[in-house]
Design a protein that fits this description.
Residues 1-21 are annotated as: Disordered. The chain is mainly β. The chain is 0% helix and 53% strand. It contains no helices and eight strands.
Length: 76
């Protein structure tokens, strides 16, 4: 999947259930907190989160995950 870019620490990305999506947050740090929410219900999601580098993370969703996920990333 193409990279999604979030220029603020909060944004919505479209994901493909069962695949990985790379999010570019451009916060310049690996000291981050990432939270994922189902856009339709507002419920928090548990997915695989991998810190790629100081400006991006990879989210891996299960095959039953929603297509629209709100991503909140905070850096320190």
């Amino acid at each position: 999947m193409e990279n999604s870019e979030i220029k603020t620490p909060r944004g919505t990305c479209t994901t493909i259930p069962g695949e990985s999506t790379t999010i570019n947050h451009n916060l310049g740090t690996t000291d981050i907190i990432v939270a994922l929410y189902n856009v339709a219900t507002g419920n928090e999601l548990n997915s695989g989160i991998t810190i790629v580098d100081e400006n991006s993370v990879r989210i891996t969703t299960a095959s039953g995950a929603p297509d629209q996920i709100r991503v909140v990333i905070m850096g320190f």
